[in-house]
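Support request, please re-run this one:
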Amino acid sequence: MALLRLRTQLLIATLLIISTLTGALLFIVRHAVRSELNQEVLQSTDTSIRAFQSVQRQREFQLSQTAAMLAELPTLKALMTTEDALTIQDASEPFWKLAGSDLFLLARSDGKVLGFHVKKQGWSPRVAEADLRRSTEQGEDAAWWYADNQLYWVFLRPINVGPENDRKQLGVLAVGYQVDSTVAEQLALVSGSQIVLAIGDIVIASTLPSREESELRRWVGRKDLGPPTRTQELTLGTDQYQVASVLIHEGPPTPVRCYVLLSFQRSNSFLQRLNRTIFILGISAVFLSALLLSFVSRTITHPLDNLVSGVRALAAGDYMFSITPRGSSEVAELGVAFSKMRGELLASQQRWIASERIAALGRAASSISHDLRHHLAAVVANAEFLYEAENLKLNRDEIYEEIKTASAEMTDLLDSLRELAREDSAVSPTSAFLDQTVRHAVESVLTKPELRSRRISITASGEMEGFFDPKKMERAFFNLVLNACEATAQRQGQIRVELHSSPESFEVRVTDNGPGIPASIRSTLFDPFVSSGKPNGTGLGLAIVNKIIHDHGGSVSIEQTSEAGTVFLVKLPRSSRAVRASSQATVT
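Re-run finished. Output below.
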């Protein structure tokens, strides 16, 4: 984050905060909705269970009243007095139809079945007789009879005759209805949920599709279902259900349980729509926040960007770059302070430049006057010697040479000043060989008596023909080689000149074993009047070198300097086009 711009940091930090708060808020909303839906499912499950129990009680009351009514019919009592099984079996069918039940049974008091009717085949009188005797022994008025995956809810009534104080029991009447898929569908319609009826771990009726019913059978057959009263979530196929169970019958022959399954399909659909809505709202909130924050952050940080631009311009040396203070009060105050500081630095820079210009002019005037005075003194002295040569018997030729040398030195100094004063290029390029030009410059240096002992080697590689001004270039290399010789005045001087050419340019390295260039003047070495360690140096030699090389479209630099010596690198273009282009650019 520290490497990012302030506006980016502000934008990222604010977006992270908004995203976190929005995500937390949306998560809380979703959790609250989910909890509310779960609570609604539990309430719906309780409602379904109560509805089922209410229907069960109504069915019990209806069948109980039907059994009581049939047991009091005189015709039925008269039929039971015959005690003939075939007669009773045939004659009991109208009573069965009158009852409208799935099971109808007439038996003697000892439990012997005389008449038996069922809608669905599979039960025999023998099986019903065993259940009847068990229920009679237990004194049940209502009982659950189960065999061969068939379950009946049966209501028993005794058939009595005679007065109240002397009643005689002729037999027993039983009516019942089968608990099957029809009953489950009726209960599901009332409760608004799926119904599953099971005996133990065997499903005997269900309103579920066949595939989900098979999965439910495996689930019911598990032994780790937990407490019967606990609600659970169950996935069947692609749907989820909240499951609650009701224990309808606990006693023998086996417990009867009803499972109420309330589907999560509507709730899940609502949650999916809610999730999509929350996701879209969250993304929209972040996107709109990003746009708003981008505008706000730009408004906040734009004045700072303007201030940063001003600081960068000032660091690059542009003291004229101005900024308009704006933004918040703190930023505007900072802008005003920066503008004031820039003005003070500009004034200070101008004062420093003026003082440096005056100092440079003073140093130049002092150096030039010193050199001119030295040469003029030599001319005057030798002129006097020449005037008195006959009387003093002096050699006129020697005196004349001294005067000529001093005049040449003054002329060379004035030519150097004029060369530096020119703003336009004064080169006249022509086709020439660079190695020959360098050799002429070295020979001119070695003509000086004090430099004849210097060892100067020249090596060249590549094609040396190029396009340049031979006279100007000879003077430039003369100054470079002379500078190298003067730098090695206090030790045994060894100077190497290495020339290398490529199809586009020349590279010339002038190496000496002198003490190196002081760090204090390295950056200004090619400026006029900069010199070090030379008692008679004017500081114009390297400045002239720099101008001549620059007029040819090249460059001169210090490639290496240390206590072991210095290497000057000169780069020059070989083609006439580059030299002419540089000359035209300089004139322009």
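Residues 427-587 form a domain with the Heat Shock Protein 90 fold (CATH 3.30.565.10). Residues 223-229 have pLDDT under 50 and may be disordered.
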